[in-house]
Protein 1
Amino acid sequence: MAMIKVQKGTKDILPNEINVWHFMEKKANEIFNKYGAKEIRTPIFEATELFARGVGDTTDIVNKEMYTFEKSERSLTLRPENTAGVVRSFIENGMHRLSAPVKLWYKGPMFRYERPQAGRQRQFHQVGVEVFGIKQPTADAEVILMAVNYLKSLGLNDLTVEINSLGCPTCRENFKNKLKEVIKPYLSQLCEDCQTRYEKNPLRLLDCKVPECQEIFSKPEIQAVIQGDFICEECAEHFEELKNYLDILGIKYERNKLLVRGLDYYNRTVFEIKSNNLGSQNAVCGGGRYDSLVRNLGGEDTPAIGFAMGMERLASLIDVSNIPEEKTTAFVVSNNTIEAVKLTEELRAEGISTEFDLTNKKFVKQLEKASKVANFAVILGEDEIASNSVTVKNLLTSEQKTVKRGNLTENLK
Ligand code: ATP
Ligand code: MG
């Protein structure tokens, strides 16, 4: 019969690579908790409208990349990102009534119909943070700090933090108009996507990866607009304060005036963290402030800022040799299956991961198996059974000693 294969752009995460995933998840819990963030888990599918409104219907995500399907005459979509879902839950569960800031973090699979390539899948995983209720730049700094410290905790160093300010809707309107004005003469030479962006979301023009478009954007009169300072005094002050905090905290950053981010809802601070050790898909983290999203999705006016990281990209950067291998603690080696199973269950009840031979193999074979999967062999021979003791062999150092059954747990721990 024909074999059924894994779908294009999706991957199994196999037992021999799971330890890096456990490592990323454990560190996320540890680091984000230190900042007072609590984990939230939202459903993998939501009403399509949530993403149309929450991500923005001029974005690539909503226009091209969503897995949308109908069920009972309802249009549903597999989440392409998790900010919209978290915001929906924030509103639905009245979290604006909690004392601000409300700090949430999440991890889990996301779905985007994209062309699969290195660092780009159709089902991939993100870990992210959202902080609600604070409009001051201290929140922007803290969120960037959380991202940087999380990446550090994974042992990742060679990273560049890029920041930019998109200003408020008013300054953005000004900028959009100026940009459209200088680009207008070249409109017919731009790619098809850019022609649509020009009408629907001109900021996203800067995000275009087509070389011919980039060449046009590098013309002096267009660069003068891009590199010019368009944000209003208040937004400029917010941005200056953020930079000040980052300086004080010792976080190095670069200003990237081309950084506009893919999503529609950002205002003021946007940031990206790039790895200098990845190919063309080098962004490991993207984030920004979205002060109007909660209101736009029907909630109370609540400022917010957050980020998301691509876990596959993180996994590819992590040096696995630094992560302790996940082995079973003990393997009971014995020719007496009844005694072996009893001891195994005793140890498990004490919280020690333990296995024994299920197949009645010869003693030596059992020892071989033990040294493959466990840290200790717990040997239960006739002598040991008679004297109510066991021999513990450290499978790393080959050291071995006989201890009383009562002292076994203590020895393994
Ligand atoms: P890109 O420019 O790489 O398409 P994006 O702006 O679409 O990124 P975001 O929506 O900001 O990405 O998602 C945050 C992070 O999630 C990215 O920086 C990246 O690490 C990861 N990511 C996004 N899309 C994918 C994908 N298809 N496969 C793997 N990781 C992804
Ligand atoms: Mg993308």
Protein 2
Amino acid sequence: MDAYQHILLAMDYSEHGDTVAQKAKALAAKYQAKLSIIHVLDNISMPDTTYGTIIPLDKDSGYPLLETEKSHLRALCERLEIPGTNRWMVWGAPKQEIVQLAERQQVDLIVVGSHGRHGLSLLLGSTANSVLHHAKCDVMAVRLLNDSFFEKL
Ligand code: AMP
């Protein structure tokens, strides 16, 4: 099997986000691949900006909520040693933005959690499901166990 060259970690900061991040990091190390990260803002309203939907991480926006999101992303990227050029924060619908960025950046593996903030009662959340269906590259869904769900089975 060919080695992966560019891995994209889709991060939503849900309860199990760290597990997904560590998996992506380990895969990037194993394949000596470039590791990028995307966080899509779908939970805070978009202020008037001059820069469209891609948020420059190196400029102060003046919006407190946005600065909080940026500082979360920065802290995570420092821990994972992801350089500034490989960090993406965009406004939009996660399922679309993840797939589009992967195509634009020639990603060959997207790593998502099996569920995050939207799919706790499902085996596969809606974002994960849509990315699996629409991405042109490989997708790895890290199985995240939801104890209360599995107790019901
Ligand atoms: P969901 O299907 O929405 O429950 O989420 C499944 C996975 O999709 C999460 O574990 C993340 O890897 C990814 N994901 C969901 N929402 C976002 C987001 N806003 N930004 C980046 N990745 C996301």
